[in-house]
Amino acid sequence: MRIDIAQKLTDSEDQRVVWSHADAPEIFDELHLKGDLVAEVLVSPEGNGKCLVTGTLSGVQTLTCVRSLDLFDRPFKTEIVVEVERGACAQQELHDDDDDVFAYTIPQTQDFVDVSECVRQLVTLQEPIAPVKNPDEDFIFVTNNQAGDGAEAEKPLDPRWEKLKALKSKMENRS
């Protein structure tokens, strides 16, 4: 998951980067991403060998509803801020000193920054703790026994319950 950065960046540059499942299958599977993941960013020079990448990251996640256990698609859009600095390193390094800004150091000859870890963290952080399929609707829990009344309501659907009821009454009579 790369964002291109020119060797000699003099002016700000808008980029629209689209990643698909084929680009990073392990991340797409881990985050339950559906369709493409889109980054619309502005790459701005910040001085000698430095640039700032800011914009939005959007896509669709398939989540499991905590109420009904149904799968549902949830679109998301989150902010992305990445500082990139060219330095004397052999490979790209991520510095996670700041919680809001991802800072990368890349080799002098590298003309891109791999933001896979940044994307993984941003998508994970925007995901709700308890995803609900239809959060605006009231949830009404209905059991199978609430449908009938009288003797019908007392009759369990599974015959194995009869053995448990017999054991329960035997234990109650013993005391």
Provide key terms for this protein.
single chain; 175 residues; alpha+beta; six-stranded mixed beta sheet; two-stranded antiparallel ribbon; 4 helices
Report on the architecture of this protein.
The protein is of the alpha+beta class and 175 residues long. It has helices at residues 25-31, 116-126, 151-154, 160-174, and strands at 2-4, 13-19, 33-47, 50-64, 71-87, 93-95, 102-107, 112-114. The strands form two sheets. It has a six-stranded mixed β-sheet. A two-stranded antiparallel ribbon has the order 1-8. The N and C termini lie far apart (68 Å).
What is the secondary structure topology, with strand pairs?
Elements: E1 2-4, E2 13-19, H1 25-31, E3 33-47, E4 50-64, E5 71-87, E6 93-95, E7 102-107, E8 112-114, H2 116-126, H3 151-154, H4 160-174
Parallel strand pairs: 5-7
Antiparallel strand pairs: 1-8, 2-3, 3-4, 4-5, 6-7
Outline of the structure:
The protein has 175 residues and is α+β, with helices and mostly antiparallel strands.
